[in-house]
Fold this protein.
Amino acid sequence: MTIIAAPDSFKGNMSAAEVCAAIEEGILRFDPAVEVLKLPLADGGEGTARALTLAAGGHFTEARVTGPLGDPLNVTFGLIHGGKTAVLDMASASGIELVPREKLNPMRATSYGTGELIAAALDTGARELLIGIGGSAVNDGGMGMLAALGFRLLDGKGNLIERSAWQNRGAEPLQDAARFDPSGADPRLKETAITVACDVTNPLLGPRGASAVFGPQKGADPAMVKALDERLAKLGQCWIDAGLVSGKANPGSTGLALLEQPGDGAAGGAGAALRVCLGAKIESGAMLVMKHAGFFEKIRRADLVITGEGMTDSQTAGGKLCSVVARESRKAGIPAALLSGGLGGNLSVLFDMFDYAVSISSGETSLDEMIAMSRRDLSFAAENLIRALCLGKK
């Protein structure tokens, strides 16, 4: 029997590689003859660069960048294909997990460090970038990132909004946005192909946009959500006025309707900034990682796929890794099982995605206890699944 272990990380608990190891441990404890193919995956959020780099046999290097609140930090990124391609996580430079909960504030959190990370990748000689943009703390329309790469924004009087303003003020300076100037952009960007790994389809603005949907998770109250959306609209209009946004708006709509491409609202609008200003192509983060990890080759000889994540709820079906793994497994005619840290929402819909779904919790009553015992519980759940599978065959 050949089983693929293809999980996401259990966020804040186990990396995807550690999840794979626990699943393998449980399976082999029951039947050492089973072949377990371990494919630690990600879908564009934290861990994407690591998963892609390891899958491609690359190596890691470091850069010193500005964190989301303006503090310096060291971050790691990957180099693959002989150094021709750099693999980056926005979460490593501008991530929500870098900000204490009591300090979450998208008016202040900046994407500047992500721009510095891109520049560091270009410094290595890489001219293809794969960037995972999930898990950010920001809502600045990617303007911090753009400023670090030489793009400029001017106010209504024609005064430059200084680069230093983007290093620790997040979306705040966007209130003065009047004109976008791309003339100072790093010239290396024109010879660089950028692919963005993204697992959300939200537009930049409006009730489904970056501010309304993701702002509250990053510390925004209703009044701030409204102010953030207005600031992103100003930035979007500057891009349109600068001739960077192509296409035609529907009759009766404003030019801002051109910023409704799937993924524009990802990472507080950084998805739109990467697409519009850097010419990036946005792809499903899960599919991108699965492709590079060799999932589609390995599944041809698999009997079962096991995936997993820290929490499975209504968001899972919207392009999260586990649902994509299950979908592609079913397409190949292979059953898919979910071992999740926890299950929430309407449980009946799980069987629309998975052939088997279970929470690994074994009686712990607090989150801290669940985290402490998660490896043991996951290993036990994997063993239990294989026992049930063999029992069914008898």
